[in-house]
């Protein structure tokens, strides 16, 4: 595909790059379909070869449907999680129809513009705008998913609590009813008994049965209290898990942001080193990472990282 002459008046893809000088430089024709996107070892071999985070061996397919409409589809189920159109993740394995100037993201930062026919307006779209659109959509989806998970868990806990209370009420009523019946029976027997010995024996049995039933009732109340404590502990654990997950996501976000910052700085630093070499200056540039001590004092679990560029001057004697 690279090096191929592309007719800009026919459907094609136009690249976006975080380096403005490399943006809008590569075009891929969409005249011959299906067109495959993936890693170099994909099967079938892809016409557009990519690499990076989230890129699968058999990542995506550009193809026409029966109405000759252009569709973008995942080429394997897992790839659907790393294909975005205008910042929105693909929701179906059947793919999505493309429209002029749609922004297509593969993986985390490989972005193309779909151009039906070039009118130069596609040059108004830059990498930062597309990336911001993608990040905004991802954050909104993550928040929506987290809210849905919390609602589902809360509903499950409420249902469990309601079932527990209903079961306790039902068993309590059964025990009370059984106790009432037993007491009625013993009272009837007491009325029928005339001899004191028999009356004493029946009374003893009644007291024994009443004691057993009362103990059963206390046991039920104790079990209900235990289950309520379990319910409350589960709610607390869910809150702690949510806080821990938020800390882990924040840490991962900072790590990814630091990695992206270092990547951008290294590219710029390499350019500066070339310029320094051409000017024959006796100094070198290097990147150093330092920890923010004040952040560490405020919170021993969180310590931010500072990125510094040092200039090393060499004095020739």
Mind sketching the topology for me?
Elements: E1 12-16, E2 27-29, E3 35-38, E4 48-49, E5 58-64, E6 70-74, E7 83-85, E8 88-89, E9 96-97, E10 103-106, E11 110-115, H1 127-192, H2 196-279, E12 283-291, H3 293-298, E13 305-313
Parallel strand pairs: 3-4
Antiparallel strand pairs: 1-2, 1-11, 3-5, 5-6, 6-9, 7-8, 7-10, 10-11, 12-13
Helical stretch tally = 3
**DSSP E strands, number:** 13
| Biggest sheet layout | 6 strands, antiparallel
- Structural Rg: 36 Å
The secondary-structure element order is EEEEEEEEEEEHHEHE
> Kindly, what is the distance between the CA atoms of the first and last residues, rounded to a whole number of angstroms?
54 Å
Instruction: State the secondary-structure class.
Output: alpha+beta
Name the average pLDDT. Answer: 82
Uncertain segments of ≥5 residues (pLDDT<50)? none
Beta strand %: 15-25%
Global morphology:
elongated
How much helix, percentage-wise, in residues? 40-55%
Quickly count the domains: 3
**Strand arrangement, largest sheet?**
2-1-11-10-7-8
């Amino acid at each position: 595909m690279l090096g191929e002459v592309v007719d800009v008046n026919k459907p094609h893809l136009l690249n976006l790059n975080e380096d403005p000088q490399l943006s809008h430089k590569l075009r891929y024709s969409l005249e011959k379909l299906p067109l495959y996107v993936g890693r170099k070892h994909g099967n079938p071999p892809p016409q557009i070869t990519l690499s990076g985070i989230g890129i699968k061996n058999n990542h995506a397919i550009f193809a026409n449907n029966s109405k000759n409409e252009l569709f973008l589809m995942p080429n394997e189920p897992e790839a659907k999680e790393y294909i975005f159109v205008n910042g929105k993740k693909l929701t179906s394995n059947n793919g999505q129809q493309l429209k002029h100037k749609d922004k297509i993201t593969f993986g985390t930062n490989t972005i193309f513009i779909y151009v039906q026919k070039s009118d130069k307006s596609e040059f108004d779209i830059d990498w930062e705008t597309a990336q911001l659109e993608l990040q905004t959509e991802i954050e909104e989806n993550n928040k929506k998913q987290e809210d849905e998970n919390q609602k589902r868990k809360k509903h499950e806990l409420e249902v469990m609590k309601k079932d527990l209370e209903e079961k306790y009420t039902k068993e309590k009523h059964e025990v009370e009813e059984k106790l009432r019946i037993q007491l009625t029976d013993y009272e009837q027997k007491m009325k029928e008994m005339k001899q004191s010995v028999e009356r004493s024996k029946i009374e003893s049995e009644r007291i024994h049965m009443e004691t057993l039933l009362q103990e059963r009732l206390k046991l039920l109340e104790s079990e209900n209290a235990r289950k309520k404590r379990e319910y409350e502990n589960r709610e607390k654990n869910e809150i702690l898990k949510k806080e821990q997950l938020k800390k882990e996501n924040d840490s991962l976000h900072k790590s990814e942001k630091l990695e992206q910052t270092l990547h951008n700085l290294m590219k710029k630093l390499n350019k500066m080193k070339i310029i320094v070499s051409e000017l024959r200056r006796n100094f070198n540039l290097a990147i150093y990472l330092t920890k923010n001590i004040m952040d560490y004092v405020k919170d021993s679990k969180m310590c931010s990282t500072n990125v510094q560029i040092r200039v090393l001057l060499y004095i020739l004697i």
